[in-house]
Structure prediction request, 211 residues.
Amino acid sequence: MSTDSAPVSGDGAVEAAVVGPVVCAALRIEARAVRRGLSRTPVVVVGYRARRAARLPDACAALVTVGFGGALDERLRPGDVLVADEIRGPGGAAVPCSAPRLLAGELIRDGLSAQVGPLVTTDHVVRGGERAVLAARGARVADMESAIVAARAGGLPVAAVRVVVDGPGHPLWHPGVIGRGLAARRVLARAGPALERWSVLLVRGEEGPPG
Prediction:
């Protein structure tokens, strides 16, 4: 599998169908970080709330959203990585993710603290008591893009990887968020090799049992 021939425009859009996966990031800071660990996988900046999801190609092996997220579960700490086993949209519909435990295992193999669980996409930053409400429904991390990307994927395999920046006890709007953000960026920069190993196994059909 190779994506070396897939041209990427200056704004991050993939200009042709690719054989391998495409990684999607909301922010340029996230895209720059994850690119450091990728040797052949294109990265598309889809914008805040995936407003530029039209940049994504019509054909590829899988769509993977990566970036920062807010923990809902008190067991997740800043710097931890959540690999989604399902992506829940604002309306409650859920899209299952492909081989999440395999992907988490590859991240752990590279020394990252990775866990598996449901991810929920909202249209706003989750704060205060809303975290507890979403956590009570089983969600572990919130973001604002993954469900939009998953809806665009159609029948393609999807995955989501989120590095925790804030959560219960670690508010987003707090002086400590700058240090947590820098630490999360370093974690994201280490995620690329695991993503590429996972994608090779996925394409080969070696992902093992579901989930």
About this structure: The first strand starts at residue 21 and ends at 25. Residues 127 and 166 are 10 Å apart (CA to CA). The radius of gyration is 16 Å. The helical segments are 28-35, 100-109, 128-136, 146-153, 177-189, 192-204.
